[in-house]
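Minutes, methods subgroup
Present: GH (chair), OT, SY

1. OT presented the first of two proteins processed in the latest run. Sequence and structure tokens recorded below as shown on screen.
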Amino acid sequence: MSGTETAGRTLVAGVGNIFLQDDGFGVETVRRLGALD
């Protein structure tokens, strides 16, 4: 470590297809997390 602080980053992969209604959970989670910014 160099002693400098950096902000942590998180990658969320939303898997599923909301149009086929097979698994919209991941997609909806990513959409809601994006709305928080």
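2. SY then presented the second protein from the same run.
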Amino acid sequence: MVEGRFACAEGPEELPGNSPATHHRTPPRTMPMEIFANHAHVFPEDVRQAGSIESLLRLMDECGIARAACFAPHRKNTIDAGYPEPNAWLAEAIADEPRLVGFACIRCVDDDAIARLEAAVEMGLCGCKIHPASDRFDILDEAAMDFYAAAEELGVVLDFHTGPHWYRIKHYHPLGFDEICFRFPKLKMVFEHIGGYPFYHDMLAVLGNNLPFGRPGHLFGGVSSILNRELQRLWYLGIETVGDAIFRLGEDMPIYGLDFPYNEVELIQDDLRQLRTLDLSEEGFAKLFGGNLERAINLHPGAEQPQ
């Protein structure tokens, strides 16, 4: 095994326990800081033109985003189009684009999953997107556990979709991640959508149970597709709940993500407007808008653990 190395359902307006006066301020701030955004799904142009790398770069320009972490497509979505290894396609496609870093996308219970992860590291990809519901597997399957062990050894950050997504919930309920955290205490993970509306408190419990109190840790909550009540009904949390999560878990937890191409320019601009009203320190905003993502990618596997 190669060594790890990187250079690189309609919800209410707010959930219980939020305090608007505590967690955000108005009017929005104007912040010149550079944004390094997570969570951009990209595709070969002949597979999904709206999700092409060129489309992503245009959106980044329109939204004032300096850099982004982009995810390879699922293999099942590209193999018939002539891209049998989408991770290799992504690595080659962004090799000369300094604004982008790449994450593999792997169904981690496949027979070749660990070999693909090792190959992704060799290609220079910085992490791995995991979507249990879309790929229809149990996050506690023993084959998945072997994959997590390999990722932990390699120092690869795993970015998980969490929240309802039209598959048997028992196979990807967020409370299952608590077992993964205990079995792999150095495994770096990002939990996108922080569980979504139905599972926010479960995801909060898992993060709080496994993060070191008051110190940076190795687990993160993905702030993506959770701020538009009308369009993101099953995942919507609202800005007050995002503030609540940061209040409870600290400024070292959140990572802002685009969820491109499913979110377009106006929606992302509105996300940024809302997030700039949060009651964070200047350092906290820098962490939300890229500092925590940078740390997740480059964090040494021996990160501090809860005491």
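Chair's summary of item 2: Residues 20-298 form a domain with the TIM Barrel fold (CATH 3.20.20.140).
Next meeting: continue with the remaining queue.
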